[in-house]
Amino acid sequence: QVQLVESGGDLVQPGGSLRLSCAASSSRFAINGMAWYRQAPGQEREFVAAITSGGTSKVADSVKDRFTISKDNSKNTMYLQMNNLKPEDTAVYYCGGSYYYTVDGPYDYWGQGTQVTVSS
User: Fold this and answer.
1) Using CA atoms, how far apart are residues 65 and 81, in angstroms rounded to an integer?
2) What is the pLDDT of residues 104-118, one digit of tens each?
3) Is there a cis peptide before residue 14, judged by omega within 30 degrees of 0?
4) Which of 23, 24, 41, 52 is closest to 116 using CA atoms?
5) How far apart are CA 50 and CA 68, in angstroms?
């Protein structure tokens, strides 16, 4: 009943930019909290950024100078603008969703992920 679909991942060179999208679909309750997490091979999944439908947002310190989170409530879509990408940003980026207005989780629904690769 809840689907989250990420898109926008690609192979880019260091210093490049990408814009990730996560489209949410829910048949019952609205998805009011959404977040980006990422996971590199062999690493645990880490928080990147989160936003609520009300506009409250939170971005991890490790990326806050380069990444911007936003949303379009009319499209039920969350975005992650990623600038000045670095090789360490390489990961599968996942979209998480919650019925609650939260930027802290937990996130009960997850998308399939989209691959971001930053390499020369």
Assistant:
1) 11
2) 999 999 999 999 999
3) no
4) 41
5) 10
